[in-house]
Amino acid sequence: MTSAVFLIFGATGDLARRKLFPAFYSLYRERKLGDRFAVIGLARRSRTNDQFRDDVYESIQEFARYNVTKDEQWDAFAEHFEYMSLDINNVDGFRQLRELTDRLDVKFDIGGNRLFYLALAPELFGNVSHNLKAGGLLEGAGWHRLVIEKPFGYDLPSAEKLNAEIRQVFEEQDIYRIDHYLGKEMVQNINVVRFANAFFEPLWNNKYIANIQITLSETVGVEERGGYYEHSGALRDMGQNHMLQMLAIMAMEPPSRMHPEDIRDEKVKVFRSLRGFQTAAEVRANTVRGQYVAGNIKGEQVRGYRDEDKVNPESTTETYFAARVFVDNFRWAGVPFYIRTGKRLPVKTTEVVVEFKNVPNNVYLSRKHKLEPNLLVFRVNPLEGIYFKMNAKQPGSEGTIVPVAMDFCQSCQIGLNTPEAYERLLYDAARGDSTYFTRWDEVALAWKYVDKIASAWGERTDDLHLYSAGTWGPEQGQQLVAEDGFRWWPVNGQDEGEVTWGHTQM
Ligand SMILES: NC(=O)C1=CN([C@@H]2O[C@H](COP(=O)(O)OP(=O)(O)OC[C@H]3O[C@@H](n4cnc5c(N)ncnc54)[C@H](OP(=O)(O)O)[C@@H]3O)[C@@H](O)[C@H]2O)C=CC1
Ligand SMILES: O=C1O[C@H](COP(=O)(O)O)[C@@H](O)[C@H](O)[C@H]1O
Protein backbone atom coordinates (compact mmCIF):
# COMPACT_ATOMS: atom_id res chain seq x y z
CA MET A 1 0.00 0.00 0.00
CA THR A 2 1.19 3.53 -0.68
CA SER A 3 2.06 5.65 2.34
CA ALA A 4 -0.37 8.36 3.45
CA VAL A 5 -1.63 10.57 6.24
CA PHE A 6 -5.32 9.73 6.68
CA LEU A 7 -7.28 12.68 8.08
CA ILE A 8 -10.58 11.45 9.47
CA PHE A 9 -13.07 14.29 9.87
CA GLY A 10 -15.84 13.13 12.20
CA ALA A 11 -13.54 10.79 14.14
CA THR A 12 -15.80 10.74 17.20
CA GLY A 13 -18.85 9.71 15.15
CA ASP A 14 -20.70 6.47 14.61
CA LEU A 15 -19.25 5.66 11.20
CA ALA A 16 -15.64 6.09 12.32
CA ARG A 17 -16.26 3.92 15.36
CA ARG A 18 -18.21 1.12 13.69
CA LYS A 19 -16.53 0.97 10.30
CA LEU A 20 -13.39 3.03 9.79
CA PHE A 21 -11.18 2.18 12.77
CA PRO A 22 -11.93 -1.54 12.47
CA ALA A 23 -11.07 -1.28 8.75
CA PHE A 24 -7.70 0.31 9.53
CA TYR A 25 -6.95 -2.44 12.00
CA SER A 26 -7.82 -5.26 9.58
CA LEU A 27 -5.67 -3.66 6.87
CA TYR A 28 -2.84 -3.36 9.35
CA ARG A 29 -3.17 -6.96 10.45
CA GLU A 30 -3.17 -8.09 6.85
CA ARG A 31 -0.03 -6.03 6.21
CA LYS A 32 -1.80 -3.93 3.61
CA LEU A 33 -1.19 -0.75 5.55
CA GLY A 34 2.54 -1.11 6.11
CA ASP A 35 4.23 1.22 8.59
CA ARG A 36 4.42 4.45 6.64
CA PHE A 37 1.03 5.84 7.62
CA ALA A 38 -0.58 8.13 10.18
CA VAL A 39 -4.22 8.63 11.12
CA ILE A 40 -5.37 11.97 12.48
CA GLY A 41 -8.78 11.95 14.17
CA LEU A 42 -10.66 15.26 13.91
CA ALA A 43 -13.85 16.48 15.58
CA ARG A 44 -14.88 19.31 17.87
CA ARG A 45 -14.90 17.54 21.21
CA SER A 46 -11.72 17.43 23.20
CA ARG A 47 -9.67 14.24 23.43
CA THR A 48 -6.07 13.54 24.33
CA ASN A 49 -4.14 11.20 22.05
CA ASP A 50 -4.37 8.50 24.72
CA GLN A 51 -8.13 8.91 25.06
CA PHE A 52 -8.51 8.78 21.31
CA ARG A 53 -6.40 5.63 21.07
CA ASP A 54 -8.59 4.08 23.78
CA ASP A 55 -11.68 4.95 21.73
CA VAL A 56 -10.09 3.35 18.70
CA TYR A 57 -9.20 0.27 20.74
CA GLU A 58 -12.76 -0.12 22.01
CA SER A 59 -14.21 0.26 18.54
CA ILE A 60 -11.86 -2.42 17.21
CA GLN A 61 -12.69 -4.70 20.11
CA GLU A 62 -16.38 -4.34 19.41
CA PHE A 63 -16.53 -4.28 15.63
CA ALA A 64 -13.34 -5.60 14.00
CA ARG A 65 -13.06 -9.06 12.51
CA TYR A 66 -9.65 -9.52 14.16
CA ASN A 67 -9.23 -9.84 17.90
CA VAL A 68 -7.19 -7.18 19.58
CA THR A 69 -5.24 -7.16 22.84
CA LYS A 70 -3.16 -4.45 24.40
CA ASP A 71 0.20 -5.93 23.51
CA GLU A 72 3.24 -4.81 21.54
CA GLN A 73 1.43 -5.17 18.25
CA TRP A 74 -1.34 -2.89 19.50
CA ASP A 75 1.20 -0.30 20.74
CA ALA A 76 2.94 -0.29 17.37
CA PHE A 77 -0.42 0.26 15.61
CA ALA A 78 -1.77 2.84 18.07
CA GLU A 79 1.36 4.96 17.79
CA HIS A 80 0.18 5.96 14.29
CA PHE A 81 -3.02 7.56 15.67
CA GLU A 82 -3.25 11.16 16.89
CA TYR A 83 -6.22 13.39 17.65
CA MET A 84 -6.84 17.09 17.17
CA SER A 85 -9.88 19.03 18.23
CA LEU A 86 -11.06 21.05 15.24
CA ASP A 87 -14.21 22.89 14.26
CA ILE A 88 -14.70 22.59 10.52
CA ASN A 89 -15.62 26.25 10.34
CA ASN A 90 -12.38 27.47 11.94
CA VAL A 91 -9.84 28.13 9.23
CA ASP A 92 -7.03 28.84 11.74
CA GLY A 93 -7.50 25.35 13.07
CA PHE A 94 -6.71 24.04 9.57
CA ARG A 95 -3.36 25.86 9.64
CA GLN A 96 -2.49 24.07 12.89
CA LEU A 97 -3.71 20.87 11.29
CA ARG A 98 -1.23 21.38 8.50
CA GLU A 99 1.60 21.59 11.04
CA LEU A 100 0.49 18.38 12.74
CA THR A 101 0.12 16.64 9.37
CA ASP A 102 3.59 17.71 8.25
CA ARG A 103 5.10 16.57 11.55
CA LEU A 104 3.55 13.11 11.22
CA ASP A 105 4.58 13.00 7.58
CA VAL A 106 8.22 13.34 8.64
CA LYS A 107 7.87 11.00 11.61
CA PHE A 108 6.48 8.14 9.49
CA ASP A 109 8.39 8.95 6.29
CA ILE A 110 5.20 9.45 4.28
CA GLY A 111 6.27 11.66 1.41
CA GLY A 112 3.31 14.04 1.12
CA ASN A 113 0.28 11.83 0.33
CA ARG A 114 -2.95 12.89 2.02
CA LEU A 115 -6.33 11.19 2.21
CA PHE A 116 -9.13 13.35 3.61
CA TYR A 117 -12.06 11.23 4.78
CA LEU A 118 -15.25 13.19 5.46
CA ALA A 119 -17.28 11.11 7.92
CA LEU A 120 -19.45 14.16 8.48
CA ALA A 121 -22.90 15.47 7.75
CA PRO A 122 -22.93 16.46 4.04
CA GLU A 123 -23.69 20.12 4.86
CA LEU A 124 -20.10 20.36 6.09
CA PHE A 125 -18.42 18.92 2.97
CA GLY A 126 -18.15 22.25 1.15
CA ASN A 127 -16.61 24.08 4.12
CA VAL A 128 -14.05 21.38 4.74
CA SER A 129 -12.90 21.42 1.12
CA HIS A 130 -12.60 25.17 1.17
CA ASN A 131 -10.70 25.25 4.46
CA LEU A 132 -8.37 22.43 3.44
CA LYS A 133 -7.21 24.69 0.65
CA ALA A 134 -7.14 27.84 2.76
CA GLY A 135 -5.17 26.04 5.49
CA GLY A 136 -2.51 24.96 2.97
CA LEU A 137 -3.26 21.26 3.31
CA LEU A 138 -3.39 20.74 -0.42
CA GLU A 139 0.08 22.08 -1.07
CA GLY A 140 3.25 20.12 -1.52
CA ALA A 141 4.31 16.90 -3.13
CA GLY A 142 2.20 13.74 -3.17
CA TRP A 143 -1.44 13.11 -3.95
CA HIS A 144 -4.44 14.68 -2.17
CA ARG A 145 -7.65 12.63 -2.26
CA LEU A 146 -11.06 13.35 -0.85
CA VAL A 147 -13.29 10.50 0.31
CA ILE A 148 -16.90 11.47 0.93
CA GLU A 149 -19.77 9.62 2.47
CA LYS A 150 -23.31 9.35 1.25
CA PRO A 151 -25.81 10.90 0.96
CA PHE A 152 -24.39 12.95 -1.89
CA GLY A 153 -27.16 15.52 -1.90
CA TYR A 154 -30.91 15.28 -1.35
CA ASP A 155 -31.91 15.64 -5.00
CA LEU A 156 -30.25 16.64 -8.25
CA PRO A 157 -30.05 20.41 -7.57
CA SER A 158 -28.56 19.94 -4.09
CA ALA A 159 -26.11 17.32 -5.38
CA GLU A 160 -25.06 19.69 -8.16
CA LYS A 161 -24.45 22.44 -5.64
CA LEU A 162 -22.43 20.16 -3.41
CA ASN A 163 -20.44 18.89 -6.35
CA ALA A 164 -19.69 22.42 -7.53
CA GLU A 165 -18.37 23.36 -4.07
CA ILE A 166 -16.10 20.37 -3.92
CA ARG A 167 -14.95 20.73 -7.52
CA GLN A 168 -13.71 24.25 -6.74
CA VAL A 169 -10.98 22.54 -4.77
CA PHE A 170 -10.62 18.93 -5.98
CA GLU A 171 -10.45 17.42 -9.45
CA GLU A 172 -13.02 14.70 -10.19
CA GLN A 173 -10.26 12.08 -10.36
CA ASP A 174 -9.33 12.88 -6.74
CA ILE A 175 -12.89 12.61 -5.41
CA TYR A 176 -13.89 9.20 -4.08
CA ARG A 177 -17.65 9.05 -3.43
CA ILE A 178 -18.46 6.12 -1.22
CA ASP A 179 -21.27 3.71 -1.92
CA HIS A 180 -20.35 0.98 0.49
CA TYR A 181 -22.34 -1.61 -1.44
CA LEU A 182 -19.73 -1.36 -4.18
CA GLY A 183 -17.17 -2.53 -1.63
CA LYS A 184 -19.09 -5.70 -0.85
CA GLU A 185 -17.40 -8.89 -2.02
CA MET A 186 -20.44 -10.32 -3.75
CA VAL A 187 -21.33 -7.11 -5.57
CA GLN A 188 -17.82 -7.12 -6.97
CA ASN A 189 -18.26 -10.78 -7.78
CA ILE A 190 -21.21 -10.08 -10.09
CA ASN A 191 -18.84 -8.76 -12.74
CA VAL A 192 -16.51 -11.70 -12.34
CA VAL A 193 -19.32 -14.21 -12.66
CA ARG A 194 -20.64 -12.41 -15.71
CA PHE A 195 -17.40 -11.70 -17.52
CA ALA A 196 -15.19 -14.63 -16.52
CA ASN A 197 -17.60 -17.44 -17.41
CA ALA A 198 -18.46 -18.40 -20.96
CA PHE A 199 -21.90 -19.78 -20.22
CA PHE A 200 -23.64 -16.70 -18.79
CA GLU A 201 -22.95 -14.03 -21.39
CA PRO A 202 -24.91 -15.68 -24.25
CA LEU A 203 -27.94 -15.90 -21.95
CA TRP A 204 -27.59 -12.44 -20.41
CA ASN A 205 -30.29 -10.65 -22.37
CA ASN A 206 -34.00 -10.32 -23.04
CA LYS A 207 -34.12 -13.52 -25.09
CA TYR A 208 -33.45 -15.69 -22.07
CA ILE A 209 -34.05 -13.58 -18.96
CA ALA A 210 -37.61 -13.04 -17.81
CA ASN A 211 -36.90 -10.57 -15.02
CA ILE A 212 -34.30 -9.53 -12.46
CA GLN A 213 -35.15 -8.95 -8.80
CA ILE A 214 -33.04 -6.97 -6.35
CA THR A 215 -34.03 -7.19 -2.69
CA LEU A 216 -32.36 -5.26 0.09
CA SER A 217 -34.32 -6.07 3.22
CA GLU A 218 -33.51 -5.08 6.77
CA THR A 219 -34.94 -6.18 10.10
CA VAL A 220 -33.78 -3.03 11.86
CA GLY A 221 -35.88 0.09 12.11
CA VAL A 222 -34.34 3.55 11.88
CA GLU A 223 -32.49 3.11 15.20
CA GLU A 224 -31.00 6.41 16.36
CA ARG A 225 -31.00 7.89 12.83
CA GLY A 226 -34.65 9.01 12.84
CA GLY A 227 -33.71 12.65 12.21
CA TYR A 228 -31.72 11.80 9.09
CA TYR A 229 -34.17 9.18 7.85
CA GLU A 230 -37.24 11.42 8.16
CA HIS A 231 -35.63 13.68 5.59
CA SER A 232 -34.38 10.88 3.41
CA GLY A 233 -36.73 7.87 3.32
CA ALA A 234 -35.99 4.53 1.70
CA LEU A 235 -35.88 5.85 -1.86
CA ARG A 236 -33.05 8.29 -1.19
CA ASP A 237 -31.33 6.24 1.52
CA MET A 238 -31.04 3.02 -0.48
CA GLY A 239 -32.66 3.46 -3.90
CA GLN A 240 -30.68 6.33 -5.40
CA ASN A 241 -27.39 4.70 -4.52
CA HIS A 242 -27.04 1.02 -3.54
CA MET A 243 -29.98 -0.33 -5.52
CA LEU A 244 -29.42 1.56 -8.76
CA GLN A 245 -25.71 0.78 -8.56
CA MET A 246 -26.42 -2.95 -8.28
CA LEU A 247 -28.89 -2.70 -11.13
CA ALA A 248 -26.28 -0.96 -13.28
CA ILE A 249 -23.73 -3.67 -12.55
CA MET A 250 -26.20 -6.36 -13.53
CA ALA A 251 -27.22 -4.56 -16.72
CA MET A 252 -23.96 -3.02 -18.00
CA GLU A 253 -22.13 -4.18 -21.09
CA PRO A 254 -18.74 -5.82 -20.67
CA PRO A 255 -16.12 -3.05 -20.57
CA SER A 256 -13.27 -3.36 -23.05
CA ARG A 257 -10.77 -3.26 -20.15
CA MET A 258 -11.26 -3.54 -16.39
CA HIS A 259 -10.14 0.06 -16.04
CA PRO A 260 -12.09 2.27 -13.58
CA GLU A 261 -13.22 4.74 -16.23
CA ASP A 262 -14.25 2.02 -18.68
CA ILE A 263 -16.35 0.29 -16.04
CA ARG A 264 -17.93 3.53 -14.91
CA ASP A 265 -18.60 4.53 -18.53
CA GLU A 266 -20.57 1.32 -18.99
CA LYS A 267 -22.60 1.96 -15.84
CA VAL A 268 -23.36 5.48 -17.03
CA LYS A 269 -24.78 4.06 -20.26
CA VAL A 270 -27.19 1.99 -18.17
CA PHE A 271 -28.25 5.02 -16.15
CA ARG A 272 -28.86 6.89 -19.41
CA SER A 273 -31.02 4.01 -20.64
CA LEU A 274 -33.30 3.93 -17.60
CA ARG A 275 -36.84 4.58 -18.73
CA GLY A 276 -37.74 7.82 -17.00
CA PHE A 277 -41.24 8.52 -15.75
CA GLN A 278 -43.15 11.16 -17.67
CA THR A 279 -46.19 11.55 -15.40
CA ALA A 280 -47.16 11.04 -11.77
CA ALA A 281 -49.60 8.35 -12.92
CA GLU A 282 -46.71 6.42 -14.48
CA VAL A 283 -44.79 6.67 -11.23
CA ARG A 284 -47.77 5.35 -9.30
CA ALA A 285 -48.23 2.47 -11.73
CA ASN A 286 -44.62 1.38 -11.38
CA THR A 287 -43.74 2.05 -7.75
CA VAL A 288 -45.07 1.20 -4.30
CA ARG A 289 -44.20 2.88 -1.04
CA GLY A 290 -44.94 1.85 2.49
CA GLN A 291 -44.28 2.65 6.12
CA TYR A 292 -44.04 0.19 9.00
CA VAL A 293 -46.41 0.17 11.93
CA ALA A 294 -45.87 -1.75 15.16
CA GLY A 295 -45.36 -5.47 14.75
CA ASN A 296 -43.34 -8.46 15.70
CA ILE A 297 -39.88 -9.40 14.47
CA LYS A 298 -38.43 -12.73 15.51
CA GLY A 299 -40.65 -12.84 18.56
CA GLU A 300 -39.92 -9.28 19.62
CA GLN A 301 -42.61 -6.61 19.63
CA VAL A 302 -41.33 -3.43 17.96
CA ARG A 303 -42.83 0.02 17.65
CA GLY A 304 -44.05 1.67 14.48
CA TYR A 305 -42.05 4.20 12.49
CA ARG A 306 -44.11 7.16 13.66
CA ASP A 307 -43.23 6.30 17.28
CA GLU A 308 -39.48 6.18 16.62
CA ASP A 309 -37.22 8.86 18.13
CA LYS A 310 -36.94 12.11 16.17
CA VAL A 311 -39.73 11.07 13.81
CA ASN A 312 -42.80 13.18 13.13
CA PRO A 313 -45.86 11.37 14.61
CA GLU A 314 -47.67 12.15 11.35
CA SER A 315 -44.74 11.32 9.12
CA THR A 316 -45.35 10.28 5.51
CA THR A 317 -41.76 9.17 4.95
CA GLU A 318 -41.51 5.79 3.24
CA THR A 319 -39.61 3.01 4.99
CA TYR A 320 -40.30 0.60 2.12
CA PHE A 321 -40.38 0.97 -1.60
CA ALA A 322 -40.58 -1.28 -4.60
CA ALA A 323 -40.29 -0.32 -8.23
CA ARG A 324 -40.48 -1.78 -11.70
CA VAL A 325 -37.57 -0.40 -13.67
CA PHE A 326 -36.86 -0.76 -17.39
CA VAL A 327 -33.54 -0.38 -19.13
CA ASP A 328 -34.41 0.65 -22.65
CA ASN A 329 -31.63 -0.77 -24.77
CA PHE A 330 -31.17 -3.70 -27.14
CA ARG A 331 -30.07 -6.10 -24.42
CA TRP A 332 -32.82 -5.39 -21.91
CA ALA A 333 -35.83 -4.21 -23.86
CA GLY A 334 -38.95 -5.58 -22.18
CA VAL A 335 -37.21 -7.13 -19.16
CA PRO A 336 -38.50 -5.74 -15.85
CA PHE A 337 -35.99 -5.14 -13.08
CA TYR A 338 -37.89 -5.25 -9.80
CA ILE A 339 -36.20 -3.54 -6.89
CA ARG A 340 -37.43 -3.43 -3.30
CA THR A 341 -36.04 -2.36 0.03
CA GLY A 342 -37.49 -1.86 3.45
CA LYS A 343 -36.86 -1.54 7.14
CA ARG A 344 -38.48 -3.90 9.65
CA LEU A 345 -38.90 -6.70 7.12
CA PRO A 346 -38.63 -10.30 8.36
CA VAL A 347 -35.07 -11.01 7.21
CA LYS A 348 -31.84 -9.08 6.83
CA THR A 349 -30.65 -9.88 3.35
CA THR A 350 -29.45 -8.56 0.05
CA GLU A 351 -30.03 -10.77 -2.94
CA VAL A 352 -30.12 -10.41 -6.69
CA VAL A 353 -32.19 -13.02 -8.51
CA VAL A 354 -32.05 -13.59 -12.25
CA GLU A 355 -35.15 -15.46 -13.39
CA PHE A 356 -34.74 -17.18 -16.74
CA LYS A 357 -37.49 -17.70 -19.27
CA ASN A 358 -39.10 -21.10 -19.62
CA VAL A 359 -37.79 -23.72 -22.01
CA PRO A 360 -39.39 -23.25 -25.44
CA ASN A 361 -41.38 -26.47 -25.23
CA ASN A 362 -42.13 -28.33 -22.01
CA VAL A 363 -41.86 -31.97 -23.06
CA TYR A 364 -42.85 -33.04 -19.56
CA LEU A 365 -46.24 -31.37 -19.68
CA SER A 366 -47.98 -34.63 -20.57
CA ARG A 367 -46.79 -35.93 -17.19
CA LYS A 368 -48.31 -32.83 -15.61
CA HIS A 369 -44.94 -31.35 -14.72
CA LYS A 370 -45.02 -27.59 -14.68
CA LEU A 371 -41.36 -26.68 -14.68
CA GLU A 372 -39.96 -24.15 -12.25
CA PRO A 373 -37.92 -21.42 -13.95
CA ASN A 374 -34.14 -21.52 -13.64
CA LEU A 375 -32.80 -18.98 -11.19
CA LEU A 376 -29.33 -17.57 -10.73
CA VAL A 377 -29.03 -15.92 -7.35
CA PHE A 378 -26.29 -13.67 -5.99
CA ARG A 379 -26.41 -13.63 -2.22
CA VAL A 380 -24.75 -10.40 -1.21
CA ASN A 381 -25.21 -10.34 2.53
CA PRO A 382 -25.20 -11.53 5.25
CA LEU A 383 -24.88 -14.89 3.47
CA GLU A 384 -22.42 -14.60 0.62
CA GLY A 385 -22.64 -16.93 -2.30
CA ILE A 386 -24.13 -17.85 -5.63
CA TYR A 387 -26.65 -20.47 -6.37
CA PHE A 388 -28.22 -21.74 -9.47
CA LYS A 389 -31.58 -23.43 -9.37
CA MET A 390 -32.51 -25.92 -12.05
CA ASN A 391 -34.81 -28.86 -12.64
CA ALA A 392 -33.68 -32.46 -12.22
CA LYS A 393 -35.16 -35.90 -11.86
CA GLN A 394 -35.85 -36.93 -8.32
CA PRO A 395 -33.59 -39.93 -7.73
CA GLY A 396 -35.51 -43.21 -7.59
CA SER A 397 -38.75 -41.65 -8.86
CA GLU A 398 -40.61 -42.46 -12.04
CA GLY A 399 -39.54 -39.19 -13.60
CA THR A 400 -40.68 -36.78 -10.93
CA ILE A 401 -39.02 -33.45 -11.61
CA VAL A 402 -37.81 -31.37 -8.68
CA PRO A 403 -35.97 -28.10 -8.46
CA VAL A 404 -32.42 -28.52 -7.14
CA ALA A 405 -29.78 -25.93 -6.42
CA MET A 406 -26.07 -25.82 -7.06
CA ASP A 407 -25.08 -23.77 -4.11
CA PHE A 408 -21.72 -22.06 -3.69
CA CYS A 409 -21.79 -20.66 -0.20
CA GLN A 410 -18.78 -18.38 0.01
CA SER A 411 -19.42 -17.37 3.60
CA CYS A 412 -19.65 -21.05 4.64
CA GLN A 413 -16.46 -22.07 2.87
CA ILE A 414 -14.21 -19.11 3.42
CA GLY A 415 -15.90 -18.12 6.65
CA LEU A 416 -17.60 -14.90 7.56
CA ASN A 417 -14.17 -13.37 7.92
CA THR A 418 -14.18 -11.92 4.40
CA PRO A 419 -13.08 -8.28 4.19
CA GLU A 420 -15.61 -5.66 5.18
CA ALA A 421 -16.72 -3.24 2.47
CA TYR A 422 -15.05 -0.31 4.19
CA GLU A 423 -11.74 -2.14 4.37
CA ARG A 424 -11.76 -2.69 0.67
CA LEU A 425 -12.80 0.88 -0.13
CA LEU A 426 -10.26 2.49 2.18
CA TYR A 427 -7.57 0.34 0.64
CA ASP A 428 -8.68 1.18 -2.90
CA ALA A 429 -8.81 4.92 -2.20
CA ALA A 430 -5.29 4.82 -0.79
CA ARG A 431 -4.09 2.90 -3.86
CA GLY A 432 -5.85 5.33 -6.19
CA ASP A 433 -8.27 2.75 -7.58
CA SER A 434 -11.63 4.45 -8.09
CA THR A 435 -13.43 1.51 -9.72
CA TYR A 436 -15.78 0.96 -6.80
CA PHE A 437 -16.54 4.63 -6.12
CA THR A 438 -19.25 6.56 -7.91
CA ARG A 439 -18.38 9.13 -10.53
CA TRP A 440 -20.32 12.39 -10.69
CA ASP A 441 -22.22 11.58 -13.90
CA GLU A 442 -23.52 8.32 -12.36
CA VAL A 443 -24.67 10.15 -9.25
CA ALA A 444 -26.37 12.89 -11.26
CA LEU A 445 -28.24 10.46 -13.53
CA ALA A 446 -29.37 8.39 -10.55
CA TRP A 447 -30.77 11.53 -8.91
CA LYS A 448 -32.51 12.53 -12.12
CA TYR A 449 -34.29 9.16 -12.15
CA VAL A 450 -35.17 9.18 -8.46
CA ASP A 451 -36.29 12.83 -8.39
CA LYS A 452 -39.18 12.03 -10.73
CA ILE A 453 -40.43 9.38 -8.32
CA ALA A 454 -39.97 11.59 -5.27
CA SER A 455 -41.79 14.50 -6.84
CA ALA A 456 -44.77 12.35 -7.90
CA TRP A 457 -44.94 10.88 -4.41
CA GLY A 458 -44.79 14.38 -2.96
CA GLU A 459 -48.04 15.31 -4.68
CA ARG A 460 -50.25 13.16 -2.45
CA THR A 461 -50.01 10.76 0.45
CA ASP A 462 -52.96 8.44 -0.08
CA ASP A 463 -50.71 5.89 -1.76
CA LEU A 464 -48.45 5.44 1.24
CA HIS A 465 -49.35 1.91 2.39
CA LEU A 466 -48.85 0.84 5.97
CA TYR A 467 -47.33 -2.56 6.73
CA SER A 468 -46.78 -4.35 10.00
CA ALA A 469 -43.19 -4.73 11.13
CA GLY A 470 -42.06 -8.29 10.46
CA THR A 471 -43.99 -8.67 7.19
CA TRP A 472 -42.71 -8.37 3.62
CA GLY A 473 -44.14 -4.89 3.22
CA PRO A 474 -47.46 -3.82 1.74
CA GLU A 475 -49.37 -6.24 -0.41
CA GLN A 476 -49.14 -3.78 -3.28
CA GLY A 477 -45.42 -4.64 -3.42
CA GLN A 478 -46.35 -8.24 -4.22
CA GLN A 479 -48.98 -7.11 -6.73
CA LEU A 480 -46.46 -5.01 -8.62
CA VAL A 481 -44.66 -8.20 -9.62
CA ALA A 482 -47.79 -10.37 -9.87
CA GLU A 483 -49.28 -7.96 -12.45
CA ASP A 484 -46.58 -9.16 -14.85
CA GLY A 485 -47.19 -12.82 -14.01
CA PHE A 486 -44.17 -13.12 -11.70
CA ARG A 487 -43.58 -13.28 -7.96
CA TRP A 488 -40.81 -12.25 -5.62
CA TRP A 489 -38.60 -15.28 -5.07
CA PRO A 490 -38.00 -16.27 -1.46
CA VAL A 491 -34.78 -14.84 -0.11
CA ASN A 492 -31.97 -16.67 1.71
CA GLY A 493 -33.27 -19.94 0.26
CA GLN A 494 -36.13 -19.63 2.75
CA ASP A 495 -38.94 -21.01 0.71
CA GLU A 496 -42.56 -20.32 1.31
CA GLY A 497 -43.47 -23.97 1.43
CA GLU A 498 -43.85 -24.21 -2.33
CA VAL A 499 -40.46 -25.26 -3.53
CA THR A 500 -38.22 -28.03 -2.35
CA TRP A 501 -34.63 -26.89 -2.27
CA GLY A 502 -31.85 -29.42 -2.62
CA HIS A 503 -28.41 -28.10 -1.82
CA THR A 504 -25.45 -29.53 -3.61
CA GLN A 505 -22.16 -28.11 -2.40
CA MET A 506 -19.79 -27.55 -5.30
N1 LIG B 1 -23.23 5.77 10.64
C1 LIG B 1 -23.43 5.02 9.57
O1 LIG B 1 -23.63 3.80 9.64
C2 LIG B 1 -23.37 5.63 8.22
C3 LIG B 1 -23.06 6.96 8.04
N2 LIG B 1 -22.96 7.49 6.78
C4 LIG B 1 -22.61 8.89 6.59
O2 LIG B 1 -21.39 9.19 7.25
C5 LIG B 1 -21.40 10.51 7.72
C6 LIG B 1 -21.15 10.51 9.23
O3 LIG B 1 -22.17 9.76 9.86
P1 LIG B 1 -22.12 9.37 11.41
O4 LIG B 1 -20.76 8.98 11.82
O5 LIG B 1 -23.23 8.41 11.59
O6 LIG B 1 -22.51 10.75 12.11
P2 LIG B 1 -22.32 11.16 13.64
O7 LIG B 1 -23.34 12.20 13.91
O8 LIG B 1 -22.23 9.98 14.51
O9 LIG B 1 -20.88 11.86 13.65
C7 LIG B 1 -20.66 13.13 13.10
C8 LIG B 1 -19.23 13.55 13.39
O10 LIG B 1 -19.04 14.86 12.92
C9 LIG B 1 -18.39 15.64 13.91
N3 LIG B 1 -18.76 17.03 13.71
C10 LIG B 1 -20.01 17.55 13.66
N4 LIG B 1 -19.96 18.88 13.45
C11 LIG B 1 -18.65 19.20 13.37
C12 LIG B 1 -17.96 20.41 13.17
N5 LIG B 1 -18.59 21.59 13.01
N6 LIG B 1 -16.61 20.39 13.14
C13 LIG B 1 -15.96 19.21 13.29
N7 LIG B 1 -16.54 18.04 13.47
C14 LIG B 1 -17.89 18.02 13.52
C15 LIG B 1 -18.90 15.03 15.21
O11 LIG B 1 -18.04 15.23 16.30
P3 LIG B 1 -18.14 16.42 17.35
O12 LIG B 1 -19.55 16.48 17.78
O13 LIG B 1 -17.18 16.03 18.43
O14 LIG B 1 -17.70 17.62 16.62
C16 LIG B 1 -18.86 13.55 14.86
O15 LIG B 1 -17.55 13.05 15.00
C17 LIG B 1 -22.76 11.09 7.33
O16 LIG B 1 -22.61 11.71 6.07
C18 LIG B 1 -23.64 9.85 7.18
O17 LIG B 1 -24.71 10.05 6.30
C19 LIG B 1 -23.16 6.71 5.67
C20 LIG B 1 -23.49 5.39 5.79
C21 LIG B 1 -23.65 4.73 7.05
O1 LIG C 1 -26.39 3.07 3.50
C1 LIG C 1 -27.11 2.48 4.27
O2 LIG C 1 -26.97 1.15 4.39
C2 LIG C 1 -27.44 0.46 5.54
C3 LIG C 1 -27.48 -1.02 5.18
O3 LIG C 1 -26.16 -1.44 4.90
P1 LIG C 1 -25.75 -2.96 5.10
O4 LIG C 1 -24.34 -3.00 4.63
O5 LIG C 1 -25.91 -3.26 6.57
O6 LIG C 1 -26.68 -3.78 4.29
C4 LIG C 1 -28.79 0.97 5.96
O7 LIG C 1 -29.16 0.38 7.20
C5 LIG C 1 -28.77 2.46 6.11
O8 LIG C 1 -30.08 2.95 6.39
C6 LIG C 1 -28.26 3.13 4.86
O9 LIG C 1 -28.00 4.51 5.12
UniProtKB/TrEMBL annotation:
Keyword presence, Oxidoreductase: yes
Gene: zwf
Protein name, per record: Glucose-6-phosphate 1-dehydrogenase
Function in brief: Catalyzes the oxidation of glucose 6-phosphate to 6-phosphogluconolactone.
Organism: Paenibacillus elgii
Family indicated by similarity: Belongs to the glucose-6-phosphate dehydrogenase family.
Binding-site residues for substrate, renumbered to this chain: H180, K184, E218, D237, K343, K348
Domain Glucose-6-phosphate dehydrogenase C-terminal: 192-489
Pfam families found in the cross-reference section: G6PD_C, G6PD_N
Pathway this chain belongs to: Carbohydrate degradation; pentose phosphate pathway; D-ribulose 5-phosphate from D-glucose 6-phosphate (oxidative stage): step 1/3
Keyword Transport in record: no
